[in-house]
Amino acid sequence: MTSHPVTALLLVDVINSFFRPGDPNYYPQADQVLEPIRQLLDKARASGTLVVHTAERHREGIYDFEWAKLPVHHIEGDDTIDFVEGFGPLPGEPVVYKRRYSAFYATDMALMLREQNVSRLVTVGVKTNCCIRATVQDAFAGGFEPVVVREATNSNRPHLEEASLEDIWRYFGQVVPLSEGLELLA
């Protein structure tokens, strides 16, 4: 491991479903993360830091085990799974589609990051207590250093958000303010 970790910015589920009123997973607090994410995204792109987008996708007409816990959602071809305008991938920015909460489970995320020599992930998006926590836990288990930017993630269940951030800080990685997240992407 080098003394200067190679960092990537990981955007988790910055898709219409969470941010567009009336869509299945929308909650008003989600909008609060967009400006901090925009700042981090602009900084990463300006500095040449790898930006990775991840989004949940499920297949039309194919049973998914997740339906046992949640209503059917994020079906391929539905516009709820489109990236929020202005937050989608630019050419050269990889997209990793996932069928579970974690961006690492049953995807090629770890392989792709290792091939880019990434060791630290600045992770942002929604929801802190679900997809962010699961992704961070699996990143840690896979030998990556997770960093969550506090202002760039939230949940519609604040008590679970706070508990998840405490767990992340205590057991898996760092929880940092926006200013530190921006420094890590310089």
From TrEMBL:
<dbReference type="InterPro" id="IPR036380">
    <property type="entry name" value="Isochorismatase-like_sf"/>
</dbReference>
<protein>
    <submittedName>
        <fullName>Isochorismatase</fullName>
    </submittedName>
</protein>
<dbReference type="Pfam" id="PF00857">
    <property type="entry name" value="Isochorismatase"/>
</dbReference>
<dbReference type="InterPro" id="IPR000868">
    <property type="entry name" value="Isochorismatase-like_dom"/>
</dbReference>
<dbReference type="InterPro" id="IPR050272">
    <property type="entry name" value="Isochorismatase-like_hydrls"/>
</dbReference>
